[in-house]
Amino acid sequence: MIKVYYNYPRPRMRMHANLNCSAIEKSGKAPQRKISINRDSQRAKLIELKDLTFASDKSQNDLWLTIDFGNVVEEEAEAKRILRTLGEHYTRFLKAEPIVHCSRP
User: Fold this and answer.
1) Pairwise CA distance, residues 66 & 70, whole Å
2) What is the DSSP letter of 61?
3) What's the first-to-final CA gap in the chain, in angstroms?
């Protein structure tokens, strides 16, 4: 399982494979959006992600995504695919460099 942080309008994407990473604790700030994806929910969640709006206000400027496929390589690939999908609607995301913030412990 990984947690991924997407930020807009400063395009950022940070992947966290260490679920004890202190940066993940920041995800508790309201009103951050959180979505979880697993193999069973993948198709429905991708549709939900396409419908999200991003703007430069605190209720729409970021997203924490939890991806659980049981394989970190596949999870990171999915996180990057989602970044490209978001970039189709919000071109600033196309400038975001996917970064692995922390690896599995």
Assistant:
1) 12
2) S
3) 12
